[in-house]
Amino acid sequence: MNAVSRRQLLMTFGPPLVILGVTAAACIFFDVSIPAMTRDAAALAHIPPLWGIVSNIGILLWCAAASIGLFAAVTIRGTGQSDAFRFLLFSSLLTVYLLFDDFFQFHENLAVNYLGLDEQVVVAASGIAIAAYLITFRRFILQRTRFAILLLALGFFAASVAIDVVLEPWLIQEIGHWEYFLEDGAKLLGIACWCSYLAGTSHQLLAGASLIPQRSLGQMELSADDDPGR
User: What is the pLDDT of residue 49?
Assistant: First the structure.
């Protein structure tokens, strides 16, 4: 019972070893400094570790949403609920892309400087991907999930994009650097809503498949039988 399976060892060591191998190859073939690839960005830039805290928290929320969704998708796969499995899988894959885009500044930097793509084209492609996701799973979203929090997420994302693309020049003149507070604040609230939606939906679908107890997400009270005071 205490033995570790080969599959678990492969899943544990495979991804980090691949990352280390790619890192080593980049350092060798592109003459990149090893600390530049392995050390924390704040340490490399000699800046306080709390700089960028809002962005970093957003990254953590993206990661949490993707992890919860993928775990739920894998767990529910063998229950015969193919529609729920597909929804959770594609929701998680979309979240992984949004995480990648945000964490590596794909549409702002990598796509423009290394792939020669126009930033607006990449942003539009992301919008199309989200729209395609919503259209494809519209019935499932409306009939099987509590979608109000998803609407809030989309609203906050739209507000952040509007501030960045349309209102930024005017807001910079009017309120200065507080424009970034509005833009990035709306984005963080959108990510929080997205994470809440995917986590809540995962819990709801797993509970519906009788894979976890039927109780509301976030319920922390002990039942009478579990009360240690009895």
Answer: 87
C-alpha dihedral sign at 33, 13, 84, 207: negative
> Looking up tokens 């990035």, which residue turns up?
184
Backbone φ and ψ of 42, nearest 5°: -65, -40
DSSP three-state, residue 33: coil
Instruction: Give Cα 30 to chain centroid, integer Å.
Output: 30
Both tokens of residue 157? 């994302």
Q: Where are the alpha helices (DSSP H) in the chain?
A: 6-29, 34-38, 41-45, 53-76, 82-103, 111-113, 119-136, 138-144, 148-162, 168-175, 178-208
Instruction: Write the burial class of residue 165 (CB in 10 Å: 0-12 exposed, 13-18 middle, 19+ buried).
Output: exposed
Distance CA 70, CA 202 (A): 9
Cβ-contact 99, 55 below 8 angstroms: no
Give the pLDDT confidence of 125-160 residue by residue, as tens digits.
888 999 999 999 999 999 999 999 999 999 999 999
**Contact by Cβ (8 Å): 179, 163:** yes
Tokens of 47: 């800046």
Q: CB–CB of 137/162 below 8 Å?
A: no
83-113 per-residue burial string, b: 16 or more CB within 10 A, e: under 16? ebbebbbbbbbbbbbbbebbeeebbeeebbe
Domain-by-domain residue ranges, the chain?
1-39, 49-208
- pLDDT tops 90 at residue 218: no
Residue range 194-216: mean pLDDT, rounded: 83
Task: Tell me the mean pLDDT in the region 98-120.
Answer: 84
